[in-house]
């Protein structure tokens, strides 16, 4: 779905580069800057450095003079405002609102205010929703790039996310006979090293049996455990070297 990230009057070139990086890792590349502090912000060294390889996002980014130019062609505008307004669009968290938006919108713009003063009321009022990121009540100040990263992640998630390689299937657990054979081997070894008194075994072996039943060792792990038992027997002089 066409998605545009719009920075209104950004004042730090490093933040612009970091925003480009945040966008790229979530698969977005349409960035528009409205009246930035620096005319050469997209090529300033700090922006390039903070982009950390997302230079193609900077290369295709556009600078415009007005917000009207920035939102041209979009049908849904989302403000990002941490402070609720008495008047204006409804306020919602990205997690609750964006999944509903993903199935209906044709072109979405996410608007971010200046680092110095946030979004102006008049810019928020023209939006369809004000997205607020849940933060700690006593400190809700998010860096511009951090806010973009959160919104970009939540929007990508709402659009279906990216596939994750499935984990390799877990190896099958060893059967009960293999576990019993390993425990018999361990019982011999524990007696040999003096850890288990065969005259007063108490419940050591049943407890170990329960432990390994919970652990569900694989045949390879049973082989390792039997190797440990063999080494204990050899150390105690009871096994063949």
Q: How would you characterize this protein structure?
A:
Helix 8 crosses helix 9 and helix 8 packs parallel to helix 10. The protein folds into 2 domains: 156 residues, Alpha/beta knot; 60 residues, Helicase, Ruva Protein, domain 3 (Orthogonal Bundle), CATH 1.10.8. The protein is α/β, with parallel strands linked by helices. The protein has a 7-stranded parallel β-sheet. Helix 1 links the parallel strand 1 and strand 2. The chain has 10 helices and 7 strands.
Task: Put the structure in a nutshell.
By secondary structure, the chain is of the alpha/beta class. Helices cover 44% and strands 12% of the residues. The protein has two domains: 3-158, SPOUT methyltransferase, trefoil knot domain (Alpha/beta knot), CATH 3.40.1280.10; 176-235, Helicase, Ruva Protein, domain 3 (Orthogonal Bundle).
Secondary structural class:
alpha/beta
Please give the oligomerization state of what you see: single chain
Are there runs of 5+ residues with pLDDT below 50, and where? Answer: none
Mean pLDDT across the residues is 90
Helix fraction by DSSP (H/I, runs of at least 4): 40-55%
CATH superfamily of the largest domain: SPOUT methyltransferase, trefoil knot domain
CATH class of the largest domain: Alpha Beta
H-E string? EHEHHEHEEHEHEHHHH
Could you give the distance between the termini?
A: 69 Å
Tally of DSSP β-strands: 7
Strand order of the largest sheet: 3-2-1-6-4-7-5
Strand content: 5-15%
Question: Biggest β-sheet, characterized?
Answer: 7 strands, parallel
The geometry reads as: elongated
The name of the CATH topology of the largest domain is: Alpha/beta knot
- The Cα radius of gyration reads 31 Å
Number of domains: 2
CATH architecture of the largest domain: 3-Layer(aba) Sandwich
If helices are DSSP runs of H or I spanning 4 or more residues, what is the number of helices? 10
Subunit structure: Homodimer.
Domain tRNA/rRNA methyltransferase SpoU type: 4-153
Subcellular location: Cytoplasm
Family: Belongs to the class IV-like SAM-binding methyltransferase superfamily. RNA methyltransferase TrmH family.
